[in-house]
Write a structure and sequence with these properties.
Helix content: 40-55%
Distance between the termini: 19 Å
Largest sheet: 5 strands, mixed
Number of helices: 4
Strand order of the largest sheet: 1-4-5-3-2
CATH class: Alpha Beta
Strand content: 15-25%
Radius of gyration: 16 Å
Order of helices and strands: EHEEHEHEH
């Protein structure tokens, strides 16, 4: 499993569309196979941005690997401990689902916050379990 690194790679993967979502997370996927349209053949209505996005995927993400990225905005996870813990969980859960995922670029994005009243600690066992449970559910839906 490879990790997405550049902003262009993240944007291209997120432009691929939503595959599954839970209460707190959403999974975006962009295929990397040869059946995807060539980056040089662009419909007139698409514009230059889509060309850059598809070119970012095609030129940098070659191979037969599953690519994964995590987006955990400070808006939804204020504490760095929480953001880093969520990212670790994303990468660990995605590694367990790697054999079941198609060869594509995947981005897991946190789309809402975990209630501070329910989880007052920055990275408690209860929060770890809740995050892991939702991520397993997210990848289960995507793998089927």
């Amino acid at each position: 499993m490879q990790r997405l690194k550049t902003r262009a790679q993240y944007e291209a993967a997120m432009a691929g569309g939503t595959v599954s979502r839970t209460a707190h997370f959403v999974l975006h996927r962009a295929p990397l196979d040869a059946s995807s349209p060539s980056p040089h053949v662009i419909p007139a209505e698409a514009g230059i941005q889509s060309a850059l996005k598809s070119d970012a995927l095609d030129s940098r993400l070659r191979g037969n690997d599953v690519w994964i990225g995590a987006v955990v905005p400070k808006r939804w996870a204020r504490r760095a401990v929480t953001r880093n813990g969520i990212k670790r969980q994303i990468y660990n859960v995605s590694a367990t689902f790697e054999p079941r995922l198609p060869v594509a670029a995947h981005v897991v994005r946190l789309r809402t916050d975990f209630a501070r009243k329910q989880f007052p600690s920055a990275w408690s066992e209860a929060l770890k379990a809740a995050v892991r449970g939702e991520l397993v559910q997210l990848f289960e839906r995507a793998a089927t």
